Amino acid sequence: MTPPPLLVLTDRSQCSRPLRDVVAAAVDAGARGVVLREKDLPDDERGRLADDLRALLEPVDGLLIRAGGAGAGVDDAVHLSAHEPFPPRRPALVGRSCHSAAELARARDEGCDYAFLSPVFPTPSKPGYGPAVGVDGFARLVAGGLPTWALGGVRPEHVPALVATGGSGVAVMGPVMRDPGLVSNYLSEFD
């Protein structure tokens, strides 16, 4: 199981309309991978939301990844924060958020299948995670062999340069939550 090159991260606080509607529009625009964040929701509500989003993705052979190790018992694909422990029962796909070379090395060594590296560009949704690494810093950091997606301030026009560095793709939250039609702009840059 491999994530698609464009991953959409959810954040209902940035949505232009209900989250399910935003994800449906993103899928209609071509998104095939969604990372469900919304960790503040109660488990049962988050589980129902995961089921709803999975139902949107299944007809297009899309992938739902649930953020947080707590989902490892029920999900095939889990995305961990930089400091969450690796799940005791390994899901089919495990990713990790990273912000440094040391965190990328840890993710690789513990057996993660992929990583997000952020922030690549300045972004208000990643305060406190250090300075943006830019395209050159991303290129240096992805050289370790772990498939890595760029996250943080990534706009469609950044995609070709990030992929040219050896990056596996990009992960986007705010722009798509505010305007899910932008998915097609991101996807067109992978051609």
Q: Please name the CATH architecture.
A: Alpha-Beta Barrel
Oligomer: single chain
Order of helices and strands: EHEHEEEHEHEHEHH
| Shape verdict | globular
For CATH, the homologous superfamily is named as: Aldolase class I
Number of helices: 7
Q: Which structural class is indicated by helix and strand composition?
A: alpha/beta
Please indicate the percent range of residues in DSSP E strands (runs of 2 or more): 15-25%
CATH topology: TIM Barrel
Short descriptors:
8 strands, globular, eight-stranded parallel beta barrel, 7 helices, alpha/beta, 191 residues, 18% strand, thiamine biosynthesis, TIM Barrel
Describe this structure in a few short sentences:
The chain is of the alpha/beta class and 191 residues long.
Structure description:
With 191 residues, the protein is α/β, with parallel strands linked by helices. It has one domain: TIM Barrel (Alpha-Beta Barrel). An 8-stranded parallel barrel has the order 1-2-3-4-5-6-7-8. Helix 5 links the parallel strand 7 and strand 8. This is Thiamine-phosphate pyrophosphorylase.
How do the helices and strands line up, and which of them pair or pack?
Layout: E1 6-9, H1 19-28, E2 33-36, H2 43-57, E3 63-67, E4 77-80, E5 93-98, H3 101-110, E6 114-117, H4 134-141, E7 148-151, H5 159-164, E8 169-172, H6 174-178, H7 183-188
Helix pairs in contact: 1-2
